[in-house]
Design goal:
The structure is a homodimer of 311-residue chains.
Chain A (H helix, E strand, L loop, with lengths): L6 H10 L6 H17 L4 E6 L3 E3 L6 E5 L4 H12 L3 E7 L14 H5 E3 L5 E3 L4 H16 L3 E6 L2 H15 L6 E5 L6 E2 L17 E7 L3 H9 L4 E8 L2 H15 L3 E6 L6 E6 L2 E6 L8 H18 L4
Parallel strand pairs in A: 1-4, 1-8, 4-7, 8-11, 11-12
Antiparallel strand pairs in A: 2-3, 5-6, 9-10, 12-13, 13-14
Helix pairs in contact in A: 2-6, 3-9, 6-7
InterPro entries (chains A, B): CoaB-like_sf, DNA/pantothenate-metab_flavo_C
Protein name (chains A, B): DNA/pantothenate metabolism flavoprotein C-terminal domain-containing protein
Family (chains A, B): Belongs to the PPC synthetase family.
Chain lengths: 311, 311
Amino acid sequence: MTCEGKTSDVEAFFASAPSLRDEDTIRQRVQVFIDEHRSRHNRLVCVTSGGTTVPLERRCVRFIDNFSSGNRGAASTEYFLKADYAVIFLYRGGTIQPFCRSVPDDALLTCLEPDDSHGIKVRAEFYSDVEHAIRGNHEGLMSHKLLKVPYTTLFEYLQILQIIATAAHSLQRLAMFYLAAAVSDFYVPWESMGEHKIQSAGGSLAMQLAGVPKMISVLREGWAPNAFCVSFKLETDQTILIQKANDALRKYRVHAVVANELNTRRKKVTIVTANGDTVIERTDQAPDVEMELVGFLCEKHAEFISNGQYT
Amino acid sequence: MTCEGKTSDVEAFFASAPSLRDEDTIRQRVQVFIDEHRSRHNRLVCVTSGGTTVPLERRCVRFIDNFSSGNRGAASTEYFLKADYAVIFLYRGGTIQPFCRSVPDDALLTCLEPDDSHGIKVRAEFYSDVEHAIRGNHEGLMSHKLLKVPYTTLFEYLQILQIIATAAHSLQRLAMFYLAAAVSDFYVPWESMGEHKIQSAGGSLAMQLAGVPKMISVLREGWAPNAFCVSFKLETDQTILIQKANDALRKYRVHAVVANELNTRRKKVTIVTANGDTVIERTDQAPDVEMELVGFLCEKHAEFISNGQYT
């Protein structure tokens, strides 16, 4: 295992993490899903979406959160399903779900209303968006092409990602990881964390956070070394973005890094690969930038499946 | 203005806060609502609910969050409406809404399904919960007894609370503040905050957070000095809880402090007043602890309205 994800750091991280709730159930659901698609020789992508939290106290009142609406992960899942991939959607609870991008916040209260005959109905102005959401989700689940697995904390995210990646190793090059989740870089190690709520009597508060071991290296080298792996780089400062994406490509040995800037991320991304950069800008005709992004990556993945490499 | 909410600290806090989006609209909605209920001599309560976030960067990617589902605020709002109060529900976006406590997470996808005639319908097992949610919410809004105002950050929460409290001053003793939201004790002052995403190259991260001025004092002394004011104290350590609630009662000069412990908060609360402590425990027959809690506080408020004090 190389540089950025030292075995000892990674082992220490997992050893000190709180145990994953429902681990057996999650492991079984993932295994059954992957086995089914392996037997059919289907392509499978694990799309991670939303942001992780980092608890600051063991009996958690306060935590650090990484903001992400989940829009990119939800959109990309829709396009991967359309491209006939099986999708494991590893998402932060409460973030945007596939087929639900047009549904408003607080959807139930906003979209439904009492009707005249003492029942309830969908408001006319939301009907087509709600129908799209319910039908898309239902078809994904019923066809066994979509498996949704929620997480909240950084610990849960990495524990579940490990379960998925080690199981997906059996798919070899047919598996893709599309790591769009916003994962914390820093955390409070569980054993150094206070049992009780931090007391505020002192006036101010100094916090010391440790770096999270870079698990992408571990995924690439240990968990699923033959899978096609796409990571994401989000910055607010355009001037350092492409350089950092190139650094990540080399350091973590992923197949592509999708570089995006906070303010323009819905309109433009740059896909950085060993063969150069590809800029994707949303045209006026396109519903979003993910359609072309996913299309591009599906092509690269197809080349990779055939040749073990891509251009 | 006394001890804990020094005028200079409070002024500095508001002066350095980012400006409130839609301030004029919020101010107008609040004013119209309060004016209507003042003209009808109605009792009015401002229920705060959910937890505040504290941004760690100006172009916010990371933030500290205070966990709160919003269950207590939502439940209490229902009982205040039943007791014929007008309610301003100041809630964290995405937390539990009044009448929606029985509705599952991810309600739209969970509660609706395609029907046989190419439409969509509410799943039978969720029908009565969904109907209760939609009708309760609709009646609250249509009767003009319920005003819902969302916030996300600590800055937004305190700015909106100030707007509500200064407007509610005109109601004199008919106004109540029921401050159930989980408000950050620490924050990063806006002017000392980085413009860009914190860089993780260094490995670990040290953060210095400042104490938030205690706005309850300011509410009591400056914004709405004649309103009945109830604050909440949540601890994970039972041994310090009642002492801290008593400290808060004295320091902030509120009329009651509701003390609750993280693990037992759904079953038991202690109401600490100048006249002693009252323990409320949920019985097997009661749907929740809030029914009796709100009933108790409505009685105290009624005494306070009649006499300017309570027993």
